[in-house]
Amino acid sequence: MSLAESLSLRLLLALTTMASGLNIPLEVEQPPTIITYTSGPIIVLHFDTTITVKCKARGNPPPEYRWEKDGQAFVPPNFNRFKANHTKGLLVLQSEDMSKFQGKYRCYASNKLGTAMTNEIEIKAFSIPKFPKETLNPIVVSEGEPITLKCNPPEGVAPRLIYWMTVDLQHIEQDERVSMGTDGNLYFSNAIQNDSRQDYGCFAAFNRIRTIVQKTAMAVVVKRLRPADDSSESSHTPVAPPARIPSLLLPSGVQTEKVLLKGEDLQLECIPEGFPTPSVKWIKMGEVMSPRVKFNNYNKLLSLSAVEESDEGKYMCTAENSVGKAVHYFDVIVEEPPKWLTEPPQSQLTVIGSDVHIKCSVSGKPQPAITWRRNGVMFRDDPDNRMQVFDDTVTLLNAKAEDSGVYQCEASNRHGTILANVNIMIMNMAPLILTENNQEYAVVVGKEITMNCSVFSSPPSSISWTKDENAIEGERFLAFESGQSLRIINAEKGDSGKYTCVASNMEGSSTVTAVLDVKDATKIVSPPQNTQVDSGKLAKLMCETEYDASLQDTFELVWRKDNKEIPLSSDKHSRYSVKGAMLEIMNVNLSDQGRYTCTARTSLDEDSATAVLTVRDVPDAPIKLELSELDSPRNVVLSWIPGSDHNSTVTEFVVEYEENRWEPGRWKELQRVTGNQATAELKLYGNLNYQFRVYAVNAIGPGPPSEPTERHKTPPAAPDRNPENIKIQGHHPHQMEISWEPLSPLERNGPGFEYKVKYRQLGVEDNFTEHMVNRSVFLVNNTPTFVPYEIKILSRNSYGWGPEPKPVTGYSGEDVPTAAPRDIAVEVINTTVLRVSWTPVPPATVRGRLGGYNVHWVRRRSLLNPDKILDLSHSMSFSGNRSHVIVPGLEPFSEYKLTVYVFNKKGNGPKSDPVTFNTPEGVPEQVTVLTSSIIQKDSVRLEWAQPSKSNGILSGYLLQYHLINETALEVIDSKEINITGADTNHWTLQGLNGDSLYRFDLRACTRAGCGPPKAEESRTDFPELGYNCSLSVPSSISGNSTHPPLVPALLNISSYVSDTFAKISWTAREEQRSLQLYVAYMNNRDGNWRISEAVNASQSFHIIDGLEPKTVYTVRLMAKRLLDNASIFEDVIETRTKDPESLKGSFSTHGWMIGTMCAVALLTLVVVIACFLRKNKGGKYAVKEKEDPHSDTASQKMNDDTFCDYSDSDEKPLKSGSLCSLKGDDAAGDSVSRYTLGDYADGGREFNEDGSFIGEYSGHRHRGSVSEPNGPSLVNV
User: Fold this and answer.
1) Which of 122, 454, 546, 1044 is the most buried (most CB within 10 A)?
2) Burial grade of 4 (CB within 10 A; 0-12, 13-18, 19 or more)
3) CA atoms of 128 and 522, how far apart (whole Å)
């Protein structure tokens, strides 16, 4: 059979349905079924005034209730006060005397289809227990006779306890002779004289009602026995009672039958009388006594708890004394109340025309009698009425609908009754689906879900399931409860959809639809990790989750610690907080250590993950410190037991001490031991009263200290050591100061402490000079100058001297040297460095520790200007004993005088005889200024100024010039010219390429060689527009590089100046648009430079704001890419005044300015047109549109017959070291700034005199630098 066919659930069931709890929906008419009721017995106490008896049933129509008492209809005598609720089945009885309600009650619940009834409910009413008032005569017996004191306790609420006491509440002593029976009577096996008393009292205690009642006291008189031959009443001669054969006071007769229920406790009692007092023994006849049997009350009581059938039989007790015995037999019979053999008879639902069998199978001892009822009315066998009774079975033949009802089976014996209500429903009914239509079910992927299709019908229905009108297939789909439940195991997303349940029988069919939504499972995708955190820090546990978005409203993330939920509070003082998926624990402590579980939960599922949080803290204090002596009280061992390390290994233990003589209350460190050691051997000072404590240290820090030990006192002793760090100093020539590090008070070891100072001149004196002192310094006077002494310092106290010290050697005071070095020789190594040598002074003349030699030289004059006396002094000190040194830092081509002297700590010795010498010529420094100007299209005029230091006699200049490929930034051609004549300061180069970029390197030369080059860059231009203002490129190039890196030549550099800001503009070629530029400016009053952030060359302008009105500033434009912020251009600007009235007045008072402005405007128009035509003709540069409506052309020289480009917006070209300016003067502008840009970024590098960084360009080539040609062509002039 296929799975689809099996799921169709064609159920071929019997036409009769039986169930222990036939669950018929209330929508269907049905007889009553008792749901609950008050079971008996109900105990009513004397102070109770109300009884409530419950009885509840279900049925359709709803049942009504009635009550019976003792088999009779019960109507309360006063319905207003005592009422039975007919719709709820609640019986409330109220009275001051509840005893009248004592009896057995039944509840009946009825509707038109039948009547159900309950078991009998017994109500027992108890009054206040009391003994009757009575007058009791004394009981008079003779010695040896038995006595029975009867209690006859009243009935009452169990449990009831019986006590025998005197009037003053003293218990009557019981033993083998005197004992109380289970009936409450007090039995005396034989009387003695001491039994006589007037106050035997029986007390009955009822603990449930907290009541104790007392019987009237009884008197017992025991008459003394007299000898047979003595008739005197007052005879006191004791007579022993006669021996008497035992008999039983309890029970009476020879045999007793004991019947009890299975599970009850068995008690068999034999209380004998006789003299001497008999003893009691027990046997079970024919069998071995059960090991569960116990004997109490001096063997008079046999007890057996929870009897079973095996405990049945004949038991015998034997009472025996020296003269005979008595026996009694007990027949023990164990019976049972009625009970169901398997289960009560079941309610049945069946179709019309079928046979119905009701079986009532019970057991019990004696065998229960069975009574049958229908709707509470007894019936018997009636074959003519289709109802047959066969002892424990009732059969309904060819049942009809009117046979429906509640059938009662009641089984009874003398020990009890059991009752079963059996609902018999005989009907035909089409399927009734009880499950709500379109009920929605939800489940997560991977879990299981059960969808219900609860059906009621008669006969039972055949049930089938489909999904989206398709048969359900697959092993994951299971049907239960006759198809009324469909379970899907390991749900998948594809299981979502509509499911239809169809129920049908011979009477008809019904359908219901269920909607299933399979959702994504809740998962912890990033579980918390095991974490270690230090105490006091912040602990973080992350728990990232995923869940179905539709379950957002039901999602919650719960954190637990050690399976206990963590209370999360918005209180700012709470240490726990959850931020999204993270649990934060602030200021963690050891109590936070444990297992943390995060549970991601929705209404459908949950997922959990656990991590262990380990808190590391400082160690606990060590405990149980013990101190033990080794060989003396000053050599002890301290031991301890380490405390918990709190998850961080102990690295060391620190032993501290405190003594109460010198610094009481102050704890000091004494010793440290490794963390794996729990003992420390301590060396102690003498004459102190110690106590010790220990603390542990781990990676977190030091833990708390332990409790201190008991005081440990050490005896006084001689000092253990002498002073250390002895210093010998001579502050004056004939003095010696001896000082040392004194011993601390702890180290003195006893009273009377002082020092002995011993000294003698080494190699001269045999005996020591000694002095006793209390201070740690001693001054020796009248010593020879700087001679060695041998010194000892000893410590002592009243108990002896310290150990013998080692001698220390020192010297007495120093004096200044007395001799000067001889044979001074000077060797000139180069223009600035010398080698100086001499003969050292004799050691005896130093008169102290030799400090070294000092070389002193004076530059008397420069050989370039021998008539000018300079006398500039310099000196250098050289430590140690030496005979020659190297002296740097001299000036070339100069005359010097040099001396040498020795020095010590006391001062300098006399100077040597002076030596005079000259330094040779050197190469010149860089020329200070180099400018260029365009004369013709192929001619350039160079002008320069001499170097600031020629370092010799100038012989001329070396000029190198290079044609540059602007695209590749490479040298195309190079040439070199030697220019003779020191006074030459300009040079004109002809035959150059037109409209080309050249770089010029100029060096100044002496006989020693040529100095470093000064670089200048210039472009040849079209002559028809006049001379072009050159673009000065100052750059300092270290070393001997012939071709320094190039600086890009920008076009149309100009400035617009206002009162508080200045605008610097430029034009960049296409290959230069990615350059990074920097604008620097300086207030000429304070000399402080300020530099802008990097500006891209394509931006074409930069605004400098925050300037002061009417102030002179120096402005520089620098490039970073090629020369690392080397200066490209420089200009001096002056901001305008803020007073507009003065400007207005100026124009108004000078009418001729109007004509000037008109001329300037006309000139500007001509220049703009010329530049426009030139640029369109060349086609090399694109026209750049700016924010302002004008554009400057390249700066050009302006003199009597030429002019510079001019802007009509008050912009002016920046100076670049050419002779051209807006003012039209011929003075050369100094393009070299001598200020240092000290506050420039990238480390505050220092600028050279020409504005370039010092030390940045030696020894390597920058990216984009000009390629060097194979060799320059030499032109001799």
Assistant:
1) 1044
2) middle
3) 67
Residues 684 and 738 in one domain: no
pLDDT of residue 1184: 33
**pTM for this model (two decimals):** 0.48
Tell me how far CA of residue 210 lies from CA of 9, 46, 709, in angstroms. Answer: 66, 12, 61
User: pLDDT digits over 1045-1076, tens only?
Assistant: 444 566 678 888 888 888 888 888 777 777 87
In a domain, 24, yes or no: no
The domain boundary, picked from 966, 995, 1020, lies at 1020
Instruction: Please name which of 354, 278, 361, 353 lies closest in space to residue 317, comparing C-alpha atoms.
Output: 278
Strand partners, 875: 856
Q: State the Cα–Cα distance between residues 653 and 640, nearest whole angstrom.
A: 10
Would you say residue 679 lies in a domain? yes
Residue 937 belongs to domain with CATH number: 2.60.40.10
Cβ-proximal residues to 892 (8 Å cutoff; 6+ apart), any chain: 831, 832, 919, 920, 921, 922, 951, 952, 1008
Token representation of residue 1068: 């960049």
Give the domain range for residue 373.
Answer: 341-427
pLDDT by residue (tens digit) across 1028-1049?
A: 333 333 333 333 333 344 445 6
Is 832 found in the same domain as 891? yes
DSSP state string for 1091-1112: EPPPEEGGG-EEEE-SPPTT-E
Q: How far apart are CA 533 and CA 164, in angstroms?
A: 72
The values of phi and psi at residue 485, to 5°, are: -140, 135
Q: How far is CA 1085 from CA 1060, 1108, 1277, in A?
A: 16, 11, 46
Q: pLDDT at position 514, please?
A: 95
Sign of the torsion angle spanned by Cα atoms 384, 390, 391, 396: negative
How far apart, in whole angstroms, are the C-alpha atoms of residue 616 and residue 532?
A: 7
**Pair type for strands 1112-1119 and 1076-1083:** antiparallel
What residues have CB less than 8 Å from 337, skipping those under 6 apart?
Answer: 261, 364, 413, 415, 416, 418
Q: What is the pLDDT of residue 232?
A: 55
Token pair for residue 132? 């009757």
The number of beta carbons lying within 10 Å of the beta carbon of residue 99 is 13
pLDDT of residue 1168: 67
**Residue 803 sits in the same domain as residue 755:** yes
Which position has the token pair 């001729």?
1152
Which range is least confidently modeled, 336-340, 806-810, 1062-1066?
A: 1062-1066
**Residue holding tokens 């109340």?**
337
Q: How many CB atoms lie within 10 A of CB 909?
A: 23
Does residue 1146 have a pLDDT over 60? no
Backbone angles phi, psi at 1021, to 5 degrees: -135, 175
Rg of the chain (C-alpha set): 65
Question: Count of CB atoms within 10 A of residue 638's CB?
Answer: 25
* 852 vs 172: CA distance, rounded Å: 122
CB 111, CB 65: distance < 8 Å: no
**677-680 contacts: CB < 8 A, separation 24 or more?**
677/653, 678/622, 678/639, 678/640, 678/641, 678/642, 678/653, 679/637, 679/638, 679/639, 679/640, 680/637, 680/638, 680/639, 680/653, 680/655
Give the angle 781-787-793 at the CA atoms, nearest 5°: 65
Rounded Cα distance between 814 and 785, Å, is: 6
How many Cα atoms occupy the beta-carbon half-sphere of 560 within 13 Å? 13
Residue 931 and residue 1034: Cα distance in Å, rounded? 9
Contact between residue 853 and residue 885 where contact means Cβ atoms under 8 Å apart: yes
Give the total number of structural domains in the chain: 8
Beta-bridge partners for 141: 222
- Nearest partner of 904 among 856, 850, 855, 854, judged by Cα: 850
Opening angle at CA 322, ends 318 and 326, nearest 5: 25
* Percent composition of the chain: helix, strand, coil (DSSP 3-state, to 5): 5, 45, 45
